[in-house]
């Protein structure tokens, strides 16, 4: 479609808010029981999602669709602005809290990237970027303290989620439901599937951070594999184990990998285990019940015992897992597919980093081709707006999120991704590349909201490699059948129940527990709420007419 330029004034003075057909949640201050009543499967299924309207400002070099991401080799040198006026003009200051996966950048007074962002938005940005590992705790202390930022990431699951959503955060359904989303064209450009988890109490309570359904990936250090003469295309699981042994050399401080939980998931893919849940005839069963999942735990423990995992694997943070990979201390990294750009940057930039990075397609356990690949959720997380700000300010904050979702081909996208030309980035071979200053100043704003993910722009070698991997990975996707369904018990107890299994599984990895403990933990998981979650997912599916 044509580039829809946005006028702040036209947004604020737009006509009546769209609300047709939404089942409105109960009022703030309601009791938990009444909130549960408003958050039924029927109400949530009938909530009107934003009407999807694709925006393509420049034509991709490699085509995509709703599953396969498009690829771009080049970046437009002088993209036009998508906004006539700054979206936050008149707001003064906007407070934001979100999780970061990088070192916290300098403040706006010492950061040209940050200062330009404030100028483009038209407001001072008071940003609290919290290390991802600490975010769930920070979120709980923030809402308990009562002084909320105006924009913040809402982690899932959150205990008592429906009541927290309704009591503390704005109902966005009147602004975004159905055709109302046309006022925010770059939010309407977010695929429908990405919006489904943003529904609560029969309405839209959040804006998603869109992601492809490609899910996770096994990255490898292509440069180090080449130096070691190791084939990155194992034919079966046995060959994968030999690969891990071949790249490991403790004397050289080099191991195969470090992130045991993520590695287990990829071993589960090779075994053909379910992705989170399975469903048959309306009955939902958690993947923990599947023998192939249990075997993936045992196989991961075997690999750790073999010595192919980094010796600090049991205690390292998520950031450290990545740091080991960047430093060549590990040569495999199981992580999100969307990390490619960040990883290339950390490995030296487009020209230097691209040849160092690869994507491994894992085999079926016994061979015979590529393993089925776990589909992702279609979103990274949710961003909510503080309740009680009034319709005009809420609408304007939505337009700030709309600004942050402007796609490639807009000046907003260029500055959001690369900062200030000549300081934070320069042009190299027709592509924007971060300078050393830009790498320090960079802000991972995609964890607030982003445009739908793409491949590139970047060197043809890297874009082609990614596109080929995504074609293979999405050819046989295994979806989690619970995505888009709601379980109240899962929102209240999901984290606690996840810890029941997670602690024991981690214990098995590192020799503190046995597989007998696994069975006992799963029985406890079922009795303490797991069976109820399964039943609620079944009810939600039936309510949706599925």
The major pleated sheet works out as: 5 strands, mixed
**Shape label:** globular
Helix count from the secondary structure assignment? 22
CATH topology of the largest domain: D-Maltodextrin-Binding Protein, domain 2
The percentage helix is 40-55%
The name of the CATH architecture of the largest domain is 3-Layer(aba) Sandwich
Classification by helices and strands: alpha+beta
Please report the first level of CATH classification, the CATH class of the largest domain.
Alpha Beta
Query: Unreliable runs, pLDDT <50, ≥5 residues?
Result: 1-33
The total beta strand count reads 16
Q: How big is the Rg?
A: 23 Å
Give the spatial strand order of the biggest sheet: 2-1-3-13-6
Task: Report on this structure.
This protein has 546 residues and is of the alpha+beta class. It has two domains: 8-211 and 380-454, D-Maltodextrin-Binding Protein, domain 2; 216-333 and 355-374 and 477-543, Periplasmic binding protein-like II (D-Maltodextrin-Binding Protein, domain 2), CATH 3.40.190.10. The chain is built from 22 helices and 16 strands. It has a five-stranded mixed sheet. The longest helix has 29 residues, at 515-543. The protein is globular and about 60 Å long. It starts with 7 loop residues before the first helix and ends with a helix. The model is unreliable at 1-33 (pLDDT under 50).
């Amino acid at each position: 479609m044509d580039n829809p330029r946005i006028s702040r004034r036209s947004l604020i003075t737009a006509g009546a808010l769209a609300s047709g057909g939404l089942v409105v949640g109960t009022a703030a201050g309601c009791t938990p029981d009444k909130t549960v009543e408003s958050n039924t499967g029927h109400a949530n299924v009938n909530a009107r999602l934003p009407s999807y309207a694709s925006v393509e400002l420049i034509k991709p070099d490699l085509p995509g669709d709703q599953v396969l991401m498009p690829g771009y080799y080049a970046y437009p040198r002088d993209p036009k602005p998508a906004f006539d006026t700054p979206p936050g003009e008149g707001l003064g200051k906007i407070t934001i809290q979100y999780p970061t996966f990088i070192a916290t950048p300098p403040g706006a007074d010492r950061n040209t990237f940050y200062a330009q962002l404030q100028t483009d938005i038209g407001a001072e940005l008071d940003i609290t970027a919290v290390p991802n590992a600490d975010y769930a705790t920070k979120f709980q202390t923030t809402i308990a303290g009562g002084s909320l930022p105006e924009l913040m990431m809402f982690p899932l699951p959150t205990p008592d989620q429906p009541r927290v959503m309704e009591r503390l955060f704005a109902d966005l359904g009147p602004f975004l439901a159905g055709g109302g989303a046309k006022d925010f064209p770059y939010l309407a450009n977010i695929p429908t599937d990405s919006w489904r988890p943003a529904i609560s109490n029969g309405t839209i309570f959040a804006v998603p951070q869109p992601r492809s359904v490609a899910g996770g990936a096994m990255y490898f250090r292509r440069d180090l594999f080449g130096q070691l003469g190791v084939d990155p295309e194992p034919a079966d699981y046995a060959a994968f184990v030999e690969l891990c042994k071949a790249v490991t050399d403790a004397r050289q401080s080099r191991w195969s990998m470090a992130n045991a939980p993520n590695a287990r998931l990829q071993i589960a893919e090779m075994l053909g285990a379910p992705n989170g849940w399975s469903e048959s005839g309306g009955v939902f069963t958690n993947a923990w019940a599947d023998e192939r999942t249990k075997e993936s735990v045992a196989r991961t423990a075997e690999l750790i015992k073999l010595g192919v995992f980094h010796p600090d694997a049991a205690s390292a943070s998520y950031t450290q897992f990545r740091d080991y990979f960047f430093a060549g201390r590990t040569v495999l990294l199981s992580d999100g597919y969307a990390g490619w750009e960040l990883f290339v940057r950390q490995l030296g930039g487009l020209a230097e980093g691209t040849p160092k990075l690869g994507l491994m397609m894992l085999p079926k356990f016994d061979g015979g081709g590529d393993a089925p690949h776990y589909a992702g959720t279609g979103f990274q997380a949710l961003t909510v707006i503080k309740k009680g700000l009034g319709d005009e300010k809420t609408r304007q904050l939505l337009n700030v999120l709309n600004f942050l979702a402007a796609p490639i081909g807009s000046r907003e996208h260029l500055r959001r991704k690369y900062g200030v030309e000549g300081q934070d980035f320069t042009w190299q071979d027709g592509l924007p590349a971060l300078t050393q200053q830009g790498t320090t100043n960079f802000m991972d704003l995609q964890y607030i909201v982003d445009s739908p993910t793409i491949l590139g722009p970047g060197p043809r070698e890297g874009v082609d490699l990614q596109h080929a991997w995504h074609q293979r990975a999405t050819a046989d996707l295994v979806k989690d059948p619970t995505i888009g369904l709601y379980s109240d018990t899962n929102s209240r107890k999901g984290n606690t129940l996840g810890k029941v299994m997670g602690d024991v599984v981690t214990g098995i990895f590192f020799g503190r527990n046995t597989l007998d403990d696994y069975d006992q933990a799963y029985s406890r998981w079922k009795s303490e709420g797991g069976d109820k979650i399964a039943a609620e997912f079944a009810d939600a599916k039936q309510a949706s007419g599925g």
